[in-house]
Specification:
The complex is a heterodimer. Chain A is an alpha+beta fold. The chains are: A alpha+beta, B alpha+beta. Chain A: Pfam families: RNA_pol_Rpb1_1, RNA_pol_Rpb1_2, RNA_pol_Rpb1_3, RNA_pol_Rpb1_4, RNA_pol_Rpb1_5.
């Protein structure tokens, strides 16, 4: 390992391989169709020959001398007894057979045509098109030629019998040629009554065709078969067809000979690389044997060896190959030879691809189809998508997640067990040697310990409980220590499905007891995580470059704004919003102890001047004042809250209004959004953290719970709901009445039935809404469910309506429930009953309970939802995969254009104006408020010249790299690092 | 950047009353794009008496805000856009619902429609056109109807009753006078129109017709029951008027903001034949649209197709309550689909299938064929793209991977000397 230079691939060239190269490259010829001998050693020149590489530990590779693990393996080869066709190229072989001359091998195109196709090919290449299209059209053109333009040899038609058999369809002299000639020479007058043609004497025929008279007589007597030119002449003279179709099977060896004659220039015109891929190489004469390492055998529990599918296939090939050779040497009849040839072809075919249509797949003893070369590459779990595009990594961990409101949103709680496995490399120097020694001294099992040390000579030593003390002494500057994760390290955290970039963010480690990853609840929206058993992955970064990138670009606070809609995606959720709502809606008063308790988990430790005094004469602070403590002093904002009142913030003080979802929530909370954009990500992070903890304190101060009684309304209200529903029923009955009386006027473009359905749906929809309104009127403003719905914390008024008033119409495919029995939904109803209850209207509420029939209809609607979700996830997943694949190369350049990696310009300026979707919300008309800027400048509202300079200039906020360096709670507790800026 | 001269700013000075030459000079000196410079002029113009110094400060402040909002160079905007469209896909419905308030029509929406657009299907599942009318026809219901009859395919069943007389081997059509006059408004008498109808039948079916008033009769040449029924079948398929593809037209009154009339009639058609519809008199070709990208492409060109893709995807998202998706993402998708001058789909048969890199294509779909073809054509993969580099294990040339950083070796003294 030491001294090994990392190899970088500069490019990859594709081509076919010359059989001679195979032989040269091959480590050994394989002739024995067996793997291991009775002692368990690989057989020489067998499929597991040690020259092909080694997989058993302890053995030495006979080619490179390395041991298993470090030897990559070497190819071997099998000399095939007869050439066989490579299945992957059957179509191309067919095309070449059809477009080239049987005799001279040249492409049946004139020089001009060839030139034309060469040009076309060049153009296609320049435009990034598919060269196969040009090849196809060239072949189509060449096929039209009846004779070769170079040697004038007639072109036979080629029939292709899938997968690998080719026939040459030739016109050959019919067996009864003499009879045909004779008939043509003496037309039978009796047959049709009129003469078909004039008869012709042999002498005349001889004159006309230029064939000697005695030869003509020979031909007529059937003693001499006319040669091709003579046959043509005869046909012309007598106007008769002397040929019949003959199917001549082309053996792979014939095809190989044919292809060898195709000149390079002709191949180039077809877009075939004449140097790298001669067409005759598509017919295999030598079969490469993949190295043992590519097809390792596994030892089962009972000590038996189980071979890889490829090995099985190779065994088959060698066996048949052997039999073929023996039979041929023994001079077996042609029929047997051909059978064996076909069998060999079959085995080589399935070795390459075992999913060829029309060929039975080769099967394992158990009946399972074998996984051969093509199958290894294909598909989601194949080499390309499974192993090359998606790689397995070390230093990763996965466990269940759980919430921890005491963490900052930038942090993640990492269980000790995980921290002890994931290590970070420490380069020991004079400055950190004490720390490094302490880690080593702690050993691998105590928490801030170390697992390995690396000496300057490159030797890696495992730190164990036994040697840790001793090893700690030896650590010197220049050593490397693989220490455990400690608080403040940066790691990458991810939850699948990773639908957007906020699904993978960098967090700072906080090592914790127990076995779950802990995260602040405000990062749930970007990950789309909840705590019902979700698991997440963590990756420890392994070099400085990666750690720096993660800190600067990937940390949670850098991802507060979503590029999808340009507003914050991280913010208060659920109880946080209920909390701030309780705190600010009715603006309650708090005593000093209470107010300080609310703010205890924030960086605020002093209260402003009190807002007044309570009846007991104590100083009091209002909820809005307490909330305002979290805002920066120069913040000015005005917006409408989701509960509908106007919120006004002036100079960092919440003057009026309720702070709820539209102010601090995830998905575009106004205050969070403004802080992130106008101040800095760091300021927004501090704010979100503090709002969350203030809100939790507030909600705990007031107490917040939801019980079954919170969804009940007085009996009188229930009666009103019933009335509303009854009157809706009546209206539905009226509609049905008019429909049955044939008096219903249909809506334009709709049938009467459709109109009726739509009207009934409308009526019943309104009935539920009015039930909801009645219920809403009877809820107190402090009803927790109402608070949650109004503030946007969770749930909606519709949910409440369904719980208290009426669940409403159940729908399947956007219609009332119509399926089930013939003309009715359930056996409980009369056929053709159009009433509301017979088609899935649920008049009860969830709280009141559904009748069995209602429950059934409700389950139908619910099932549709489930099915829909299942179908949708797979469809949208594929859509996203395609989108990503198509767009992944696009990148903005320094000149503002958007180009792909090959330099093609896709947009001259991103989004037509070059503004970033992260920084500008899609709903904003103008990102820059020139008017208010002008106002400020003209009115000169600046207290200091610094403020003015800040306003005019571009202020780059200092790069914040850690929770430990910067505003907010002092994580380092007064003794830690300062920001680097 | 070229030096701003006094002459070059004349246009802005002339256009705004309160913009002086000096103000124009300082504003023109910034890196602001045209639209923002114009907005600065407008703002300065709106409040009289802005000094040159203040204007300079305004321009500076606007410039800093502008530079703040620009995309960073080397930003992987493609992936971000793809994610921004793909991610909300999980939140969409699979159902077909009514079209933007037009309760009379069913239109494919949600995820299926989005997939359809990205696939660049030749014909959408539910093709529609939104036909706007010119001033003359837009306000008058009667005149709007004239356009409707030009659009909607009129079949025989809409014109009258068809009956078959098996005894005499005759098909007889009893045309409705009112309908005829309604649909052929330029004609005076119904019999005249009936004549036209009869001619169309003769042309299409190759039979002799007999007409008395508005009744038409015809039958097969030789009495054959089968042929008679066949004739009736064929008769039903004949389009007497309008565009064959347009099966239904709905008229709606809609309010408009940019015209003198508050409301106008807009036609929604089921089925589309965009090129034909634009030819019809009374159709406002500048506002009429269609949801078939390829039809737009054929009649109006790629740029129009690009615009249509943006509009259609945006509408689909808006319909699902996802109107917050930034339109710039849709623009990028639309731009890559139309980048080569034709409409290409996103996927195996379009963008992904025509990538330069063999490995990128092989990693997407139909792996083996791409590899075999690459071998035949002797292709070489230069490993420029993202996917190829992931495969071979090299850093990708996007974002931070696209930056080549070399530590400066120049002595630090040089810098201060420059100052």
């Amino acid at each position: 390992m030491a001294g090994a230079t990392p190899k970088e691939i500069g490019g990859i060239k594709f081509g076919l391989m010359d059989p001679e190269t195979y032989r040269d490259m091959s480590a050994t010829k394989v002739i024995t169709a067996d793997t291991y001998d009775d002692d368990g050693y690989p057989i020489d020149m067998g499929l597991m020959d040690p020259r092909l590489g080694v997989i058993d530990p302890g053995l030495e590779c006979r080619t490179c001398g390395k041991h298993s693990g470090s030897c990559n393996g070497h190819f071997g080869h099998i000399e095939l007894a007869a050439p066989v066709i490579h299945v992957g190229f059957t179509k191309l072989i067919r095309r070449l057979l059809r477009s080239t001359c049987r005799e001279c091998g040249r492409l049946a195109l004139t020089d001009e045509e060839k030139e034309e196709f060469s040009e076309k090919l060049q153009r296609t290449k320049d435009l990034g098109g598919d060269p196969t299209d040009v090849l196809k059209s060239a072949v189509r053109q060449a096929r039209k030629a009846k004779t070769c333009p170079y040697c004038s040899h007639p072109q036979a038609d080629i029939k292709h019998e899938k997968p690998t058999t080719y026939y040459e369809v030739q016109d050959v002299l019919a067996g009864e040629y003499s009879e045909r000639i004779a008939r043509a020479m003496q037309p039978d007058e009796d047959e049709e009554g009129e003469e078909i043609g004039e008869g012709m004497a042999p002498q005349q025929l001889a004159d006309e065709t230029g064939i000697a008279l005695d030869r003509v007589n020979d031909i007529l007597s059937g003693e001499f078969r006319p040669r091709q030119e003579d046959r043509k002449a005869l046909e012309k003279a007598l106007d008769v067809d002397l040929t019949e179709e003959d199917m001549n099977k082309l053996m792979p060896s014939d095809i190989r000979d044919w292809f060898e004659d195709i000149p390079d220039e002709d191949l180039e015109a077809l877009g075939i690389d004449s140097q790298g891929s001669r067409p005759e190489w598509m017919i295999l004469t030598v079969l490469p044997v993949p190295p043992v390492t590519a097809r390792p055998s596994i030892t089962l529990d009972n000590g038996q060896r189980s071979e890889d599918d490829l090995t099985h296939k190779l065994v088959d090939i060698i066996r048949i190959n052997q039999r073929f050779m023996e039979n041929r040497e023994a001079g077996a009849p042609q029929l047997i030879i051909e059978d064996l040839w076909e069998l060999l072809q079959y085995h080589v075919t399935t070795f390459v691809d075992n999913e060829i249509s029309g060929t039975p797949p080769a099967r394992h003893r158990s009946g399972r189809p074998l996984k051969t070369l093509s199958q290894r590459l294909k598909g989601k779990e194949g080499r390309f998508r499974g192993s090359l595009s998606g790689k397995r990594v070390n230093f990763s961990a996965r466990t269940v997640i759980s919430p921890d409101p005491t963490l900052s949103l930038n942090e993640v709680g990492v269980p000790e067990r995980v921290a002890e496995e994931m290590t970070q490399t420490m380069n020991v120097s004079e400055r950190n040697i004490d720390r490094a020694r302490r880690y080593v001294q702690n050993g691998p099992e105590a928490h801030p310990g170390a697992n390995y040390v690396k000496r300057p000579d490159g030797r890696r030593l495992k730190v164990t409980e036994k040697n840790c003390e001793e090893l700690a002494e030896k650590v010197q500057p220049g050593w490397e220590v693989n220490r455990h994760l400690v608080d403040g390290d940066i790691v990458i955290f991810n939850r699948q499905p990773s639908l957007h970039r906020m699904s993978i963010m960098a967090h700072e480690v906080v090592v914790m007891p127990y076995k779950t990853f802990r995260l602040n609840t405000v990062v749930c929206p970007p990950y789309n995580a909840d705590f019902d058993g979700d698991e997440m992955n963590m990756h420890a970064l392994q070099n400085e470059e990666a750690r720096a990138e993660a800190r600067v670009l990937m940390r949670v606070q850098e991802q507060i704004l979503s590029p999808r809609f340009g507003e914050n995606i991280i913010g208060a959720i659920q109880d946080h919003i209920s909390g701030t709502y309780l705190l600010t809606n009715e603006n309650p008063e708090f005593t000093e102890t209470q107010a300080l308790d609310l703010l205890r988990a924030t960086s605020v430790d002093e209260l402003p001047a009190p807002d007044g005094q309570n009846d007991a004469g104590q100083d009091v602070w209002t909820g809005r004042t307490v909330f305002s403590e979290l805002l920066p002093d120069d913040l000015n904002l005005e917006f409408t809250s989701s509960s509908g009142d106007e919120v006004l913030i002036e100079d960092g003080q919440l003057i009026r209004g309720t702070v709820d979802e539209d102010a601090v929530g995830a998905f575009g909370g106004e205050v969070v959004d403004t802080l992130t954009k106008m101040y800095s990500e760091t300021r927004a992070r501090v704010f979100i953290n503090e709002v969350a903890s203030l809100a939790m304190r507030a909600i705990m101060h007031f107490g917040f719970s939801l019980g079954i009684d919170d969804e009940s309304i007085p009996p009188t209200a229930n009666e009103q709901v019933d009335e509303a529903i009854d009157s809706a029923y009546e209206r539905v009955q009226e509609l049905i009445g008019t429909y049955e009386a044939d008096e219903l006027e249909s809506l334009p473009g709709r049938t009467v039935d459709e109109t009726l359905e739509m009207k009934i749906m409308q009526t019943l929809g309104k009935a539920r809404d009015s039930a909801g309104e009645i219920a809403e009127d009877h809820f107190a403003d402090d009803n927790p469910a109402v608070i949650m719905a109004r503030s946007g914390a969770r749930g909606s008024m519709l949910n409440l309506t369904q719980m208290t008033g009426c669940v409403g119409q159940q729908a399947v495919r956007g219609e009332r429930i119509n399926r089930g029995y013939e003309d009715r939904t359930l056996a409980h109803y009369k056929p053709d009953d159009l009433s509301a209850e017979a088609h899935g209207f649920v008049e009860n509420s969830y709280r009141g309970g559904l009748t069995p029939r209602e429950f059934f209809f409700h389950a139908m609607g619910g099932r549709e939802g489930l099915v829909d979700t299942a179908v949708r996830t797979s469809k949208s997943g594929y859509l996203q995969r395609r989108l990503i694949n198509a767009l992944s190369e696009l990148e903005t350049q320094y000149d503002g254009t958007v180009r792909d990696t090959s330099g093609t310009i896709v947009q001259f300026e991103f989004g037509e104006d070059g503004t970033s979707p992260v920084k500008v919300s899609s709903t904003e008309e103008n990102a820059i408020d020139v008017d208010s800027i002008a106002d400020r400048v003209v009115d000169a509202e600046f207290t200091s010249s610094e403020e003015k300079a800040r306003f005019l200039g571009r202020e780059e906020p200092p790069t914040n790299l850690s929770e430990y360096a910067g505003p907010g709670l002092d994580k380092a507790q007064g003794m830690g690092a300062q920001s680097d800026d | 950047m070229t030096e701003t001269t006094v002459e070059s700013v004349d246009t802005y000075v002339d256009a705004h009353e309160h913009v002086t030459e000096d103000i124009a000079l300082v504003v023109e000196d910034t890196d602001l794009p045209r639209r923002l410079k114009d907005r600065v002029y407008d703002t300065v113009d709106a409040r009289e008496g802005v000094t040159t110094e203040q204007a300079d400060e305004i321009a500076q402040a606007v410039e800093s805000r502008y530079l703040d909002t620009r995309v960073d160079p080397l930003d992987p905007v493609g992936t971000v856009s793809a994610q921004s469209i793909g991610e909300p896909g999980t939140q969409m419905t699979m159902n077909t619902f009514h079209y933007a308030g037009v309760a009379e029509m069913d239109v494919t929406q949600g995820l299926p429609r989005l997939i359809e657009l990205v696939d660049a299907r030749k014909t959408p599942d539910t093709p529609i056109m939104i036909v706007h009318l010119d001033d003359e026809h837009a306000t008058d219901r009667e005149r709007a109807h004239e356009v409707v009859w030009q659009l909607e395919a009129t079949k025989i069943l809409a014109l009258g009753d068809v009956s078959t007389n098996v005894a005499d081997m005759l098909v007889s059509i009893d045309l409705n006078d009112e309908t005829l006059l309604e649909r052929w408004p330029t004609y005076e008498s119904a019999t005249e129109v009936a004549g036209i109808v009869a001619d169309i039948i003769e042309d299409n079916l190759g039979v002799e017709t007999r007409r008395t008033g508005t009744e038409i009769e015809f039958g097969p040449e030789e009495p054959s029951y089968r042929e008679l029924l066949q004739l009736v079948e064929q008769l039903r398929e004949i389009v007497f008027k309008g565009i064959e593809e347009v099966t239904r037209v709905v008229i709606r009154k809609e309010s408009v903001d940019d015209s003198d009339n508050d409301e106008e009639f807009v036609l929604y058609t089921e089925g589309s034949a965009f090129a034909d519809a634009l030819e019809i008199e009374g159709v406002d070709a500048s506002r009429t649209t269609c949801n078939n990208i390829h039809e737009i492409y054929r009649t109006l060109g790629v740029e129009a197709a690009r615009e249509t893709i943006i509009n259609e995807t945006m509408e689909t998202l808006e319909e699902q309550g996802l109107d917050d998706v930034n339109i710039r993402h849709l623009m990028l998708v639309s731009d890559i689909m139309t980048n080569r001058g034709t409409v290409e789909s996103i996927g195996r048969h379009g963008i992904s299938g025509s990538k330069e890199s063999v490995l990128a294509r092989a990693a997407f779909e139909v792996t083996v064929n791409h590899l075999l073809d690459a071998a035949i054509h002797g292709e070489a993969d230069d490993l420029n793209g993202v996917i190829e580099n992931v495969i071979v294990g090299k850093p990708v040339a996007i974002g931070t991977g696209d930056v080549d950083l070399r530590m400066g070796a120049a002595p630090s003294a040089r810098k201060s000397a420059d100052d």
